[in-house]
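Researcher: Quick one. two chains, 844 residues in total.
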Amino acid sequence: MNKLTRLFIYIFLVVLAAGCSPSKPAPNQTVRQTIRYNIGAEPATLDPALSNGVTEQTLENALLEGLVRMDRDGNPSPGIAKSWEVSEDGKTYIFTLRESTWTDGEPLTAEDFVYSWRRVLDPETASPYAYQLYYLVNGEAFNAGKVKDPAEVGVRAEGKDKLIVTLTEPVPYFLSLTAFPTLFPVNKKAVDKDGAGWAQNPATFTGNGPFKLTAWEHNKQFILEKNERYWDQESVRLKSLVVTLVDDSNTELAMFESGQIDIAETPPYREVERLAKSNLLKLSPDLSNEFYMFNTNLPPFDDVRVRQALSLAIDREALVSKVTMGGEKAAYAFVPPGVNGPAPGQEFRSLDEKLIAGFNPAEARKLLAEAGYPEGRGFPKVKLLLSNNQNHRPVAEALTGMWKETLGIEAEIIEQEYKVYFRTLDERDYQVARVGWNADYNDPMTFLDLWETDGPNNQADWSNEEYDRLLEEARLAKDPGARMDAFLRAEKILMDEQPVMPVYYYTNPYLENDNIQGVIHPSFAFFADFKWASVN
Amino acid sequence: MAGYILKRAVFNLGVMFVVVTLTFFLMRLLPGDPFTTRRVAPEIKDNILARYGLNQPLVTQYTGYLYNLARLDLGPSLKYPGRSVNDIIKESFPVSATVGLLALLLSIVLGVSLGVASAALRNKWPDRLVLVLATLGMSVPNFALGAGLIYIFALKLRWLPAAMSTSPVGLVLPALTLAALPAAIIVRLVRTEMIEALDRDYIVAARARGLNSCSVLFRHALPNALSGMVHYLSPLAATLLTGSFIVEKIFALPGLGQYYVTSVGNRDYNLVAGVTIFYTFVLLVSTFLADVLIFLINPQSRVRDEVT
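Model:
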């Protein structure tokens, strides 16, 4: 035992010594064109057909490229397609592809796109975002197994460089959609070799984007290097991109502040105010909103006056300035700012910013009295449903406090685990629920088609004939002005009836060192695009 | 000994079977499935369920799972398409095991040395100091300790990286965070048992015969005081080696511990079952090894062990 004790003491001293020896963090390598970027939790896959998260999509956008790529202003710019033509009726697109190659040196042809899109729609692939290709003729039917022959799907190649796409209806945002990862090309040879595994391994990952995958250490980091075979490689100034996978926002902040990373994607909510003073915190627009949804099957929430009263009783400016404090903007309509409008550079929201009245306690009390609940008397205790997230509860508490103060209504907050919460919504076993939504594409439709009668995500069970008709009108409209007008009229109906009560629009706060330039922080689909990035 | 080992092996297999069955069915009883999110149209969801065989009757799924398990195949992850549960465990376990082993050694070294010193100097100021430290070690939660250590050593002193380092130096803070609680428990266990041992007649007699106090402490009292600690070590070793969710999250270590929590949230049935089975396996092995160790330290325990 004596020897053992001595060994213990020895180990103890060695460990202590190791802990005390100073080791300086590596100096910032500003000379080298390398960005160290923390993206958060481990992505599930890099196969664009199988992924459905912003983390996955951000990496895929660096490693792959579709027909177009979004530029700094969020407009489609030529990608693998150097030009395109749209038919008179808006239903046929003819893309002309440039000469380009995969990272393995093989040429990329129109046939690669045909293969990739059919793969997304193939029921066996089981792509969660397959619906992004439902605009194609027979896209949905093929995915549902009703059409068996992939040749009947509306995408075909003509020669090596012509891709012809036929849609069931004109889709004004279809071009932008080709910049979305679901529509990226994947390499058939790589996929054939190893089913879904090809996208898990740098040795088999074959891409065509500005960067190539050099290393993927699971739950630790990605190393991406400039792809010398990329068609526009002259524009790519970064030599490498290190993408770390640190999930904890406080740890991420500690790494940023100690110089271990250059860009931090998700600064902790509670630190945003302090960080805003340091100038390193930046805000980029985000096409997303937060709202409270009413179960319109249930009294008293089936009464529009009740819903309006609950909405008028909340002070949205106070919520964003005193509770959330993460750069959010009070919402007085449903579609967030930044969503495209009738013309380039003209946002949809610029047509009309405010569709509902702000904080108005007197009017709120009056409406509630008219509905039969003067001063809140006889109003049942409201059950407010949240998914459990540390950021949701403070808002819900402030909001229910405002209801109580203004209207005399009591509310109970119910938190449920994410998946349980979704099931509760699906079973309509709720009264009022907090919901967040973000855009699939940059168009008012991605927010407004939620509330069509029997829409899969219309858990408010709200239905309005005129609303449905206006969205149909927008779908068929040829003139962008008329289309936006139909959207706005529909949104006005939504905001008069308020099956959903908007609270605020999100913005995306992130930390970025001053020596970083040219990183684009898009308002949806991707956290960041590094194609044009550099280090000064 | 061989008969004993065989008996234990059969018993452990039975335990594993119960764990597998419970995990399999309990996970499927939870509301939601791996693919519950908004935006998924019914036909898309059907395709996904079919891809993973989740549209088949539960009994078929269960027997299929057992069949694969018998071939040591834990199945594909449902959250990470293209990765198998075997791969995930193979990649992440070594990281957890390294940190865990360091923490285990650290807690034994600290625990035993401080515990012995504390018992030897009972009720004097070093003893009191050790007891205060042990109470702190037991009451400060590891997320607070981890955050505090990062603040001091990474942000203020800048001696150690804040996170993400798997170099030996980078493992110091996570190992220290992990070791604090078990070290405190071991200190208390060893101290109590040492005091008890030191008060026994044969120790008093040994002292009376004039043996020096070091020899009494280490040769006579300590072996008797260690068996309690070794019993505590077997579940501790299993827990430390297979990783801690909180410590791995704070220090951004790519270990196994995070999957205990995230896989349940994701309803990644195969991954939940896989990490649970793996943890059970490590626990059963370490319990067995601890029993052997106790047997070697103190042959008297043979009788008790053979009863189990």
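DSSP finds 16 helices and 21 strands in chain A.
Researcher: Thanks, that's what I needed.
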